[in-house]
Amino acid sequence: MHPEEAFDIIDGHLVTVELVSGFLSVTQPAEVALYVATWERLWSFAQTGAAATRRIRAALARLDGVEAG
Questions:
Q1: Which pTM was predicted?
Q2: Could you report the per-residue pLDDT of 9-63, keeping only the tens digit for each?
Q3: Is 53 a domain residue?
Q4: How many independent structural domains does the chain possess?
Q5: Which H or E element spans position 15?
Q6: Are 8 and 28 in contact (CB under 8 A)?
Q7: Does any domain span residue 69?
Q8: Using an 8 Å Cβ cutoff, are 23 and 16 in contact?
Q9: Concatenated DSSP letters for 21-46?
Q10: Residue 37: inside a domain
């Protein structure tokens, strides 16, 4: 399952939010700051580079029924 809404931060002054039933533009600085803080929190969980490659390969191996080394 995936989130039912997605957002883009544009230049730190505008956030566009795609909802299930429509589209929203957020411009109030305090509200934009909430989306920026949410993005920063999500990014802190992200893995990139070799760590991401290892995680993806391990997941694919589990799907194939093989343990990754």
A1: 0.69
A2: 999 999 999 998 899 999 999 999 999 999 999 999 999 999 999 999 999 999 9
A3: yes
A4: 1
A5: strand 14-18
A6: no
A7: no
A8: yes
A9: S-EEEE--HHHHHHHHHHHHHHHHH-
A10: yes
